[in-house]
Amino acid sequence: MAMYSPQGMEAHPYDQPWAIVQGLRKDVADLRAMLHAEQQQRAAEVQELKGEVAMLREALKTETHPLHAITHKLSTDLDATASHFSKAIEEVKASHRQNLGHLNSLLQDEIRTRKHAEDLRDSREASRDSEWKSTINHLQSEMGHQKQVFLSFKDESVNDVNNLVHDVELIMNGLVKVSHAKETIATQNLFCTDTSGGCNLFGDTIKPSYESARSPSPRR
User: Fold this and answer.
1) Which of 31, 54, 61, 180 is deepest in the core (most CB within 10 A)?
2) Among 13, 23, 77, residue whose Cα is nearest residue 31
3) Closest alpha carbon to 151 in 1, 21, 9
4) Residue 206 bridge partners (DSSP)
5) What span, in angstroms and rounded, lies between the C-alpha atoms of 71 and 124?
6) How many CB atoms lie within 10 A of CB 68?
7) pLDDT higher than 70, residue 195
8) pTM listed for this prediction
């Protein structure tokens, strides 16, 4: 859509390209703001995950502390009554090893699950960062292309204006020459005759004199 100045005259032809460049700059600024917000959100999620891991570690310590106390008490009791409860000690040891193995298995499963979740999150973030970088590179390439088009249009406009000025100068010089020629012809004595005894040139009728009719003078 054409733009107009406050006086009602058509605006400069570079206003529309400049508006396009301004729009591209605004889009790039919005994309950068969105990327910054996304990074901040991811950082907050990482901090939240770290807090959850710390809470799980504290919970694990709290749960294992009673087990260690019970084990110590059992060991003390078993030492005092080793001769009488050897079979019970063996059963408790077997049960203890089984519980520890089960807890270790659960712990390893939890570690693998957490690691898989972290790897998946890192993969998503890397893919998202790659998409953002590709988009930014495309925008920069498009801005460079638009700039080149703008410069080419500017050069063509300058050449067209110079050619137009040159043509106008040629036309004005031609009109000046025609005007001078008309004035020169109008001031000269022309020898021409028609049926009425005169010559009509530039709307004026020139009638020959008797002397010029009898002895015409040589033309200059």
Assistant:
1) 31
2) 23
3) 21
4) 199
5) 45
6) 9
7) no
8) 0.28
